[in-house]
Amino acid sequence: MEKFDTAILGGGLAGLSLAGGLKGSALVLEKDAVPGGLCRSFEFCGVRYDVGPHIIFSRDKKLSERLCALAPTARLRRSNRIFHNGRFVKYPFENELSALSPEDRDYCVREFINNPARNRDAGNMLDFFLKIFGRGITELYLKPYNEKIWKYAPALMDTQMVERIPRPPDDDVLRSARGEATEGYEHQLYFNYPSEGGIESLVKGTVAALPGSARVLAPVRVTGLRREGGGWIVSSDKGEFFAGCLVNCMPLPELLSLLDTPQEIRDAAAGLLYNSIHIVMVHALKDALGDNFAVMCADRDVIFHRLSKLGFLGPAYRPRSGGELIMAEVTFRPGTPQAEMDGEKVAGAVLEGLAKTGLVKPGDVAATELRTFRYAYVIYDLKHRQNVPKILKYLQDGKILCCGRFAEWEYLNMDAVLARSAALAARLNNEL
Ligand SMILES: Cc1cc2nc3c(=O)[nH]c(=O)nc-3n(C[C@H](O)[C@H](O)[C@H](O)COP(=O)(O)OP(=O)(O)OC[C@H]3O[C@@H](n4cnc5c(N)ncnc54)[C@H](O)[C@@H]3O)c2cc1C
């Protein structure tokens, strides 16, 4: 039986970058033929596209530099819009209130200035929006948009994810209502993106830099895990392996399905909520998105929450045959209406939404393609703070460490994934 210091389950960015940071020998076991997980890219009309466009940004300059070092990238300035009642409003919404109709603008300003929630504690996402932005901005945009992406009531969601949102200076919001240009979310105002190949270029860069002591096995099906000889035996359809240390980088439900856990942990696992995503690609011969990249749409009658025009990312992301590629994102979860629709119906509903908004006319659609990804977004429901630590502690006590977005059940972007895998690699190297 082959022996490794560390076995890593799941070859997404977390598993691969962890393998890259370990001093001892490491085996990454990945179920798909191509590693990369959510950082994979696919081809449509000769162009590489991601699972939702993955931009490279971070509040931590060193982390964005580390990501950019993995492949040649271009630096771009954000040009995102919210499509609200037939108008484009610059993103974030509160930074261009002057683009709203006079009634909507006055409603937002009035409620922002006279905000009874301002000094209240926010116990859930909806309260947080009301406290920071007031009822106008919340009702017109934040609430319907978040209901659409999460398919979950913001009043039943924890504040963990949104509490990172910076409070806009009052003056910026009021100036924006008077038509003066202001910018919000400045840590994302500039971002990088691979000059070609989509975000998977970063995965390729990570794999290329792996030391000789790291091996990636893909595709492989892990069928069992058992403690033996002070370490772990990992059984799979490619044989058995021994590892002194086991790290899980795959989604928690996938790991837990391999373990015999007590009822308390099974109950906590049953409470882990997440959304899946359909990515619908549209080759449009003409469009009305302008020179924008992402366009958010909170309209309840339109199926997608976000459109992205890939040509914004550079010449490699425009089809040679002409036109533009527009990506539409649709989230779903068992029990939501979108989960009952087959791929053809989802793509049809996306085209209806494009026609209804006037952003792409039916006669201008040359081709479509749909892909579905099971684990896309962790939902921070009000039990998240109880369920997740309970499961992670149980696993850690049983000598299984977890690293990554669905392995730690947190809304982690690529920069946070790199930070977590680097911290874990340092810890394991120390212990070795
Ligand atoms: C729509 C969307 C847009 C995003 N946009 C951005 C962005 O703009 N910027 C940004 O920084 N981040 C973005 N992210 C987040 C980014 O994708 C993640 O932070 C990162 O890819 C997580 O990597 P990971 O390795 O933790 O998880 P994953 O990529 O989920 O990796 C898990 C791996 O485990 C494998 N696996 C699962 N089950 C098994 C099994 N049974 N056996 C073996 N292997 C298994 C999977 O195939 C996968 O390769 C976005 C995510 C989504 C969904």
Structure report:
This protein is an alpha/beta fold and 432 residues long. Helices cover 31% and strands 25% of the residues. The protein has helices spanning 13-21, 61-68, 102-113, 125-150, 170-177, 200-208, 252-256, 263-270, 343-357, 384-397, 414-431, and strands at 2-9, 26-29, 41-44, 47-50, 73-77, 81-84, 87-90, 190-194, 214-217, 222-228, 231-236, 239-248, 274-284, 294-297, 306-309, 324-332, 365-378, 400-402. Strands 1, 2, 9, 10, 11, 12 and 18 form a seven-stranded mixed β-sheet that branches. Strands 7-6-14-15-16-13-17 form a seven-stranded mixed β-sheet, sandwiched between helices. It has a two-stranded antiparallel ribbon with strand order 3-4. Helix 1 packs parallel to helix 11, helix 3 packs antiparallel against helix 4 (125-150) and helix 3 packs antiparallel against helix 5 (170-177). The model has no long low-confidence stretch (mean pLDDT 96). Residues 9-15, 29-32, 37-39, 51-52, 54-55, 222, 249-251, 254, 277, 375-376, 404-406, 412-415, 417 line the site of flavin-adenine dinucleotide.
